[in-house]
Amino acid sequence: MIRTFITAPHRAHTRSFSTTISRRQQILPKSNSPIVSKLEFFNSVTGSSSLIPTYRVLDGVGNLIHGAELPQIDKAFAHRLYENMQLLPTLDTVLYNVQRQGKISFYMTAYGEEATIIGSAAALEMDDEVLGQYREMGVLLWRGFTIDDVMAQCFGNEEDGSGKGRQMPVHFGSPKHHFHTISSPLATQIPQAAGVGYALKRTPDRRSRSIAACFFGEGAASEGDFHAGLMLASTIPSPTLYIARNNGFAISTPSTEQYNGDGIASRGPGYGIDTVRVDGNDVLAVLSAIREARRRCLEQGRAVLVEAMSYRVSHHSTSDDSFAYRPRTEVEDHKKVDNPITRFRLFMESQGWWNADAEIELKARLKEDVMKAFKRAETLKRAELSELFTDVYGGEQPWHLKEQRAELARLLRKYGSDYEPWRKELAKFKNNGRDLLD
Ligand SMILES: Cc1ncc(C[n+]2csc(CCOP(=O)(O)OP(=O)(O)O)c2C)c(N)n1
Ligand SMILES: [Mg+2]
């Protein structure tokens, strides 16, 4: 039997030849793989030694590349894209410095990934369920999460709607904006997204209308959860869109050391998932790719994978100094050559949709809005101290939390009003922590 397969001629799968060999010779158990007689190994999904191509619409200076098609956008939509792309670095610069001043505990910027994040956000429907990694604040902003909301979460003040100050900065979550709460352990959102996609498919008024969109970094794709997630989405089909942000680094590990294959895109076909690689510095290419990927998700009720290629201009987070492992000049070069914001601005200028005055006005306005929100957030109190013990468990509070709460109340009664460091700390909470004593 085995010899039959090995000796079967090379073109056994072609229709003309298939008539000449018996049906038994052509068909493998449980597979439609064509039979060949030549022993050939492969290590590429697009043909021997060729790399998966990258879809692009605009060149580095904002011109339409030969043969490319512009996605349908008008001037107002382009302005919205550009404003949101510019808002990200404005917020990032202020919040990065605010962390350096010790006013917030942590921050992560998205420099260099503005087109990937905003282009994706703009291609999704407002109520598609989004499961992010941590660098996708721009999706929330696109959906109307305000600058005050961003500040409230990062400062952990009383206006922090879903987290009530109990999450690290940038671990956003907002049911209203269909944005599932960020969790630090990498890649957990990838299998969860397959479940969310499946739940959407089983919900009559969301079926055929909503998708789950899951963002993750190329580093997170080294976790077992990446494979578990894609496997799940592939075998229990669901409209789940996987968006891999390949920014070249997982903290200090460059992508060249993260995988030996052709990026993340090469893994999609292994799971039978429609896949495309896109230039993540080209907001119009991202917009088109995600729009089409979303359409396929809904049409087929199946997962789709998009790999967006960019460069992490920022340090990984405020806990990182990337110049310890990459040269400053490399970063400066990428900022200039691949700058996604400049590329789109030049395109808008070429359409007569933008000019230097508009640029000055926008930058000044965004900075003023961000500074105003920052100054306001600083003055707000934290949520009630008793919130420390709420929300994690449903139903009756478990005994260990009751015990811990009683212990804290006991200590507050003993030291709260006399011991200076405690008095100062308690003053930062709404009701000065008194709600715990009642
Ligand atoms: C399970 C797990 N392992 C390690 C970490 C530490 N960690 C946090 S972010 C990160 C790098 C992730 O890189 P990537 O997915 O490429 O995302 P990027 O930061 O480049 O956006 C690592 C290793 C973690 N949070 N969780
Ligand atoms: Mg990365």
UniProtKB/TrEMBL annotation:
Keywords: Oxidoreductase, Thiamine pyrophosphate. It catalyses: N(6)-[(R)-lipoyl]-L-lysyl-[protein] + 3-methyl-2-oxobutanoate + H(+) = N(6)-[(R)-S(8)-2-methylpropanoyldihydrolipoyl]-L-lysyl-[protein] + CO2. Pfam families: E1_dh. Residues 84-383 form the Dehydrogenase E1 component domain. GO terms for biological process: branched-chain amino acid catabolic process. The keyword Zinc does not apply. Its cofactor is thiamine diphosphate. It comes from the Eukaryota. PANTHER family: 2-OXOISOVALERATE DEHYDROGENASE SUBUNIT ALPHA, MITOCHONDRIAL. The branched-chain alpha-keto dehydrogenase complex catalyzes the overall conversion of alpha-keto acids to acyl-CoA and CO(2). It contains multiple copies of three enzymatic components: branched-chain alpha-keto acid decarboxylase (E1), lipoamide acyltransferase (E2) and lipoamide dehydrogenase (E3). This is 2-oxoisovalerate dehydrogenase subunit alpha. It comes from Laccaria amethystina LaAM-08-1.
